Structures are given as structure tokens and as C-alpha cells.
């Protein structure tokens, strides 16, 4: 399978020039970080949750679970169910 370049030569030159000039296209220097917020236990009805804000990106994750006994017919088998909401 042929390798497809991730960035064009012009994009690579732009990135390298920015690093050498200590400048990013959003105005920050190369060592400046975006504001970061990380909070846990933000969803009271979940067993675990977190909220992450990084620049303009916001991600919230919640996890719930419940324990139950295995059936007598299949005592060594359990069940895992996952749901993703977007």
C-alpha cells in the first residue's frame, strides 16, 4: 500500500518555520499551553465522571455500572453492556 503524506510540503514548511520562529498560527509561542480544566465527579447520577476543557474543546464522560448475580444456569458468565451518547 503506498504511503500517503499527512501534510503537504507547504504545510510542513509552515510548521517548521513556525517552530524555528517560536510562533504558532494562533499567536501563542511554542511553549504556551491552552487553558486546561479537568474536573471529576461532575455527574451525580454516574459512578464516575469527568469534564475536560482544553482551549475550545469540551469533553464530558460518565460511567455507570451495576452488579448482579450470575444466573444458576451460567454461574461463570456475566454481561457487560456499553452505551455511548454523543
TrEMBL record:
<dbReference type="GO" id="GO:0034476">
    <property type="term" value="P:U5 snRNA 3'-end processing"/>
</dbReference>
<dbReference type="GO" id="GO:0000177">
    <property type="term" value="C:cytoplasmic exosome (RNase complex)"/>
</dbReference>
<dbReference type="GO" id="GO:0035925">
    <property type="term" value="F:mRNA 3'-UTR AU-rich region binding"/>
</dbReference>
<dbReference type="GO" id="GO:0034473">
    <property type="term" value="P:U1 snRNA 3'-end processing"/>
</dbReference>
<dbReference type="InterPro" id="IPR001247">
    <property type="entry name" value="ExoRNase_PH_dom1"/>
</dbReference>
<dbReference type="GO" id="GO:0016075">
    <property type="term" value="P:rRNA catabolic process"/>
</dbReference>
<dbReference type="GO" id="GO:0000467">
    <property type="term" value="P:exonucleolytic trimming to generate mature 3'-end of 5.8S rRNA from tricistronic rRNA transcript (SSU-rRNA, 5.8S rRNA, LSU-rRNA)"/>
</dbReference>
<feature type="domain" description="Exoribonuclease phosphorolytic">
    <location>
        <begin position="33"/>
        <end position="84"/>
    </location>
</feature>
<dbReference type="InterPro" id="IPR020568">
    <property type="entry name" value="Ribosomal_Su5_D2-typ_SF"/>
</dbReference>
<dbReference type="GO" id="GO:0071028">
    <property type="term" value="P:nuclear mRNA surveillance"/>
</dbReference>
<keyword id="KW-0271">Exosome</keyword>
<keyword id="KW-0963">Cytoplasm</keyword>
<comment type="similarity">
    <text>Belongs to the RNase PH family.</text>
</comment>
<dbReference type="InterPro" id="IPR027408">
    <property type="entry name" value="PNPase/RNase_PH_dom_sf"/>
</dbReference>
<dbReference type="GO" id="GO:0000176">
    <property type="term" value="C:nuclear exosome (RNase complex)"/>
</dbReference>
<protein>
    <recommendedName>
        <fullName>Ribosomal RNA-processing protein 42</fullName>
    </recommendedName>
</protein>
<dbReference type="Pfam" id="PF01138">
    <property type="entry name" value="RNase_PH"/>
</dbReference>
<dbReference type="GO" id="GO:0005730">
    <property type="term" value="C:nucleolus"/>
</dbReference>
<dbReference type="GO" id="GO:0071038">
    <property type="term" value="P:TRAMP-dependent tRNA surveillance pathway"/>
</dbReference>
<dbReference type="GO" id="GO:0071035">
    <property type="term" value="P:nuclear polyadenylation-dependent rRNA catabolic process"/>
</dbReference>
<dbReference type="InterPro" id="IPR050590">
    <property type="entry name" value="Exosome_comp_Rrp42_subfam"/>
</dbReference>
<dbReference type="GO" id="GO:0034475">
    <property type="term" value="P:U4 snRNA 3'-end processing"/>
</dbReference>
